Amino acid sequence: MRKPELLAPAGDREKLKTAVLYGADAVYLGARDFSLRERAKNFAADELPEAVSFAHAHGVKLYLTVNVYPHEEHLPALRELLAAAAAAGVDAFIIADAGVFRLAKEIAPQVARHISTQASSTNSEAARFWQEQGAARVILGREVSLADCAKIAAQTTAELEIFVHGAMCMAYSGRCLLSSFLTGRSANLGDCAQPCRWQYQLVEERRPGAPLPLEEDRWGSYILNSKDLCLIELLPEILAAGISSLKIEGRMKSAYYVANVTRIYRRALDACWRAFERAEVKTAAGCRQYYAFDPDWTAELQKVSHRQYCTGFALRPPGPGDYVYDSSYSFRGYDFAAVALGYDQKLRRLHIEQRNHLALGDTVEILLPEGDVRPLSIRAIWREDGEPAAALPHAMEHAWLACDEAVPAGCIIRRPVREEGGAADV
Ligand code: SF4
Fold first, then answer.
1. Which tens digits make up the pLDDT trace of 231-270?
2. Between the chain's N and C termini, which has fewer beta carbons within 10 Å?
C-alpha cells in the first residue's frame, strides 16, 4: 500500500501556485474549451508548458482534464489540444468519453489516461474494463460507498481515485441535461448553469403571470440543492479501502478556498497515514488506535465557501437530510483578503496584492503553508508609491502592510466576514 496522493484543483495560474504551495501532491486543471468547467479561467494550450514546468519543479504531478463529451465539430481542436498537452509534458489526461480515450491513445500513447468521474464507474467490472483498455486510473463515481471502494480496489490493480471534498450533483456526476434544457448551457460540455440550485415556483398553466409560491423560507424553495461533500473524518476508512488519490473539487472556487482546503487535508492525510503505517492491522479501526482527529480541521473547513457538509454516498445513500432545503447560498466565515507577494526584511513590510477591502485597525489572518494561522493587526498601510494610506478599497491593488515576521510569497491572507449571511461562491 502506498500513501495516497492529495489532488487539488487549479482553475488558473494563481490557484495552481496556491495548490502547490499548500501541499498538493498533484493538481488537475482544464484546457480552455475542453474541460468540465467552462467558466473557470482554465489554461490555453500555450500556457501548459509553463504550468507543467512549475508543477514538476516542485515535485507535483499535473493532470489535464479533458472530460467533455465532444461532438464531431469538436474533434479537430481536441486532437490539437491532446498533442500540445503531451508535448508540454502533462502526466495524465482525465477522460470521460470513449472517443477521447481512443484519440488520446493514438495521439499521445506515452501519457497516462485516467477515467473521469463523469464516466460513472461504480463497480469493479467497470474498473477492470477500463484497466483492460489501458487506463492507469479510474476516478470512481461519487455514488460509490467506501465499502464498495474497498471491494473494487480488491479486484483491480488500476489506481482508484475518489472525491473527498466539494460540491455534489443531483445527477450522476454531472451527466444531466437540466442546464442544457433550461439555459442552452451544457453540463456535458463544461458549462453548467447549476439550475439545480435555483429557486423554483409553481405556475398554473393558464396564469403564467401569477406564480404560486412554493416556499421553504422567505427566499423560495430549493428542491434539488444537495449539500457539499466532506470526508475528512473518514480518512482511516479511505486509507483502509486502498484508494490511491484523494481529490478536492473546486476549480471555480477562490485561491483562498484552494489554500485552506488543501492545507487542512494535507495535515489530516499526513497524520492519518503515519497512524496507518504504525497500525498492526491495516484497517480503519487499527489506524484509529494511533490517530487523533483534530477538531480544528473541521472548524477550518467551515471557514471557506460551502453549503452544509455531508458524507455523500460514502457510508450510505444520501437521504432527505443530505439536501439543503432552506438556502441555495454558500456560507463562509472569512473573505479572501490578499495574497502575499513578498517580504521586505529591512523595512519589516509585507507586500500584498489586495482582494478585498482592507483598512487600518482590521485584523487579518495569514495562512502559513507549514504552520498555523498567524493573525496580523493592520497598524500601517503604504501604497505602492510609498504614500501612507488608511484603507485599500480597490481590488487587485498592490500595497505594503507593517508586519514584524516574514511571510512566504504566495501565502493567502483572509479576513473575517464583516456582514454575516449568504454569500455567492467565490
Ligand atoms: S444542473 Fe446541477 S445536477 Fe445538473 S449537472 Fe449542473 S450541478 Fe449537476
1. 999 999 999 999 999 999 988 899 999 999 999 999 999 9
2. N
State whether 251 and 123 are in the same domain.
yes
- Asked if residue 124 lies in contact with residue 102, where contact means CB atoms within 8 angstroms, the answer is no
Domain total of the chain: 2
Same domain? 305 vs 242: yes
Q: What is the pTM of this model?
A: 0.90
On whether both 339 and 305 belong to a single domain, the answer is no
The C-alpha cell at 289 is 488506535
Q: 197 CA distance to ligand 1 centroid (A)?
A: 8
Residue 260, CA distances (Å) to 9, 22, 257, 296, 316 in order: 12, 8, 5, 12, 28
Contacts of 193 (CB under 8 A, 6+ apart): 179, 182, 183, 185
What phi and psi values does residue 417 have, to the nearest 5 degrees? -65, 135
pLDDT for the residue numbered 280: 96
CATH number reported for the structural domain that contains residue 161 in this entry: 3.20.20.70
Q: Are residues 45 and 132 in the same domain?
A: yes
Out of 177, 181, 192, 198, mutate this one to test ligand 1's pocket (max ligand atoms within 8 Å of CB): namely 192
**Is residue 186 one of the residues assigned to a domain?**
no
Domain that holds residue 287: 5-167+227-314
Measured in angstroms, how far is the CA atom of residue 169 from the centroid of ligand 1?
A: 5
Are both 61 and 95 inside the same structural domain?
yes
Residue 66 bridge partners (DSSP): 95
169: Cβ below 6 Å to ligand 1?
A: yes
**3-class SS of residue 71:** coil
Strands 159-166 and 245-248: parallel
What's the CA gap between 68 and 96, in Å, rounded? Answer: 7
